[in-house]
TrEMBL record:
It comes from the Eukaryota. Coiled coil: none annotated. Keywords: Iron, Metal-binding, Oxidoreductase. InterPro entries: DIOX_N, IPNS-like_FE2OG_OXY, IPNS-like_sf, Iron_ascorbate_oxido_reductase, Oxoglu/Fe-dep_dioxygenase_dom. GO terms for molecular function: metal ion binding; oxidoreductase activity. The keyword Hydrolase does not apply. This is Fe2OG dioxygenase domain-containing protein. Belongs to the iron/ascorbate-dependent oxidoreductase family. Signal peptide: none annotated. Its cofactor is L-ascorbate. Residues 125-230 form the Fe2OG dioxygenase domain. It comes from Oryza glumipatula.
């Protein structure tokens, strides 16, 4: 099977193992009836849930549309993000991230660390959102030209929604055969991936997928990620429903989310 660097069509697919796996889910029926007390009896909603379950089981990475957020608004958020990162460095430092402000604010290029290497990105962290800018390689010092915009990792929490530039391929996902493949931007969709806590909660039914960002484009790239996470003091353990479907035994020990989060975050900053 021949696959181009960026998929040439609008098909909602990624190459997964040796087959093409459909990972696009229209969640509009779910959004429309999310407050309906009788939603569990709706066959159309059940089909959406099954598609989401399949995507989480088979890939851990998929696209969602029909989410209710207008495409122009998604673009406006990216445009504002671009404008911020175009500001002079001294201006961006006015909201610099520090331990005193809970590691919220601006993070300079190379300050974030993944797997012992600086990530070639700058970012703003605010509550559950992270606005990220990836410079082109010619704007990076020679010794960091081979570094990734964000090294291979899994996300900390339950799931992540990513609003990425429509015309730049940079987000890569590691498939079951160990190959890195692009998650091509599809206008109007969010890329959704599951995180570490959903793995624990589901007793391993859902596995987070390694992903990274490599911006080989000649243009600056941004993405805006929303991290859906547990409460800081929440004790996460495999739920009974999932234990029953995986042999009746918990495969993961109970973990306090805040402890898990701090441990991973502290490894991602220059000491």
């Amino acid at each position: 099977m021949q696959v181009s660097a960026c998929f040439p069509s609008e098909r909602w697919v990624v190459v997964w193992f040796v087959t093409v796996f459909d990972v696009g889910v229209d969640i509009s029926p779910l959004v429309e009836k999310i407050d309906d007390p009788n939603m569990a009896n709706d066959k159309d909603l059940l089909q959406v849930v099954r598609l989401l379950d399949d995507a989480c089981r088979e890939a851990g990475f998929f696209y969602v549309k029909g989410h209710g957020i207008a495409e122009p608004l998604m673009k406006e958020v990216r445009d504002v993000t671009h404008k911020f990162f175009q500001l002079p460095y001294e201006e961006k430092l006015k909201i610099k991230m520090t331990p005193q402000n809970g590691y919220r604010g601006y993070q300079r290029l190379g300050e974030n660390i993944t797997n012992g290497k600086p990530d070639m990105q700058e970012a703003i962290d605010k509550d559950h959102a992270r606005l990220i800018g990836y410079p082109v390689s010619t704007d990076i010092l020679e010794e960091h030209r081979t570094d990734t915009g964000c090294g291979a990792h899994t996300d900390y929490g339950l799931l992540t929604l990513v609003n990425q530039d429509d015309d730049i391929c940079a987000l890569e996902v590691k498939n079951q055969s160990g190959e890195w493949i692009y998650a091509k931007p599809i206008p109007g969709t969010f890329v959704c991936n599951i995180g570490d806590m959903l793995k624990v909660w589901s007793n391993g039914i859902y596995q987070p997928t390694l992903h990274r960002v490599v911006n080989n484009s000649p243009r600056y790239r941004v993405s805006v990620a929303f991290f859906y996470e547990s409460n800081f003091d929440a004790a996460i353990e495999p739920v009974e429903f999932c234990r029953e479907r995986t042999g009746g035994v918990a495969k993961y020990e109970k973990v306090v989310y805040g402890e898990h989060l701090i441990k991973k975050v502290l490894n991602n900053f220059i000491k």
